[in-house]
Automatic annotation (TrEMBL):
The lineage of its organism: Bacteria, Pseudomonadati, Pseudomonadota, Alphaproteobacteria, Rhodobacterales. It comes from Pseudosulfitobacter pseudonitzschiae. Residues 103-193 form the Smr domain. This is DNA mismatch repair protein MutS. Pfam families: Smr (PF01713). It comes from the Bacteria.
Length: 196
């Protein structure tokens, strides 16, 4: 491939450029290119503290369960405000009242247990039952090593939450851990409201 010769106007332009250009010192240019500007380390981010809301006082007729996940479910339920007749509540906790129906969720997954519990509670209330037993089981004693840690007794912790959310909250008056004769910490007594 042959080189093309510059035209006279291009040669004149090149001459003007070279007259005004200054020769660079290669060492100084390299030093300037390698010079690192000092950068201050980033300031640590201040994370705001979270404030917790006061515990709900419990509107009359509403089951009260705090969402404090650090305390065991049984302890949270025992500290909940009593919404039903105190004498009947004490008898229920001692296992003196016999549940009129029961559902065993033991071994079910969360996606099967939730609809089964919803059907059971709503149909029990529709049938006029007042005291039912919900068996959750005590849960596995070990974590299976998945990427997300699993709580000991997932159903045991989740069932009280489901019972305090719609549509079940309108049917439930009181939740308490069952007496040892009805399953102990692996079951709950659920006292239902009278059907209107």
């Amino acid at each position: 491939m042959t080189r093309r010769r510059l035209r006279p106007d291009e040669l004149e332009l090149w001459r003007k450029v070279t007259e005004k250009a200054e020769r660079l010192d290669a060492g100084a240019a390299m030093k300037q290119a390698l010079e690192v500007t000092r950068v201050d380390p980033p300031k640590p981010r201040v994370v705001p503290r979270f404030e917790t809301l006061p515990k709900p006082a419990g509107a009359k007729g509403q089951p009260v369960i705090t969402r404090d996940v650090l305390r065991p479910v049984a302890e949270r339920l025992s500290n909940a405000q009593v919404q039903m007749d105190r004498k009947a509540f004490d008898q229920m906790r001692r296992g003196k009242l016999k549940p009129e129906a029961r559902i065993d969720l033991h071994g079910m997954t969360l996606d099967h247990a939730h609809p089964a519990l919803t059907r059971f509670i709503l149909s029990s209330q529709a049938s006029g039952r007042r005291l039912v037993l919900v068996i959750t089981g005590k849960g596995k004693a070990r974590d299976e090593g998945g990427p997300i840690p699993v709580r000991f007794g997932v159903l045991r912790h989740q069932v009280p939450q489901w019972l305090t959310m719609a549509p079940l909250s309108q049917a439930v008056l009181q939740i308490t851990p069952a007496n040892i004769r009805h399953g102990g910490t692996g079951a709950y007594y659920v006292y239902l409201r009278k059907r209107r």
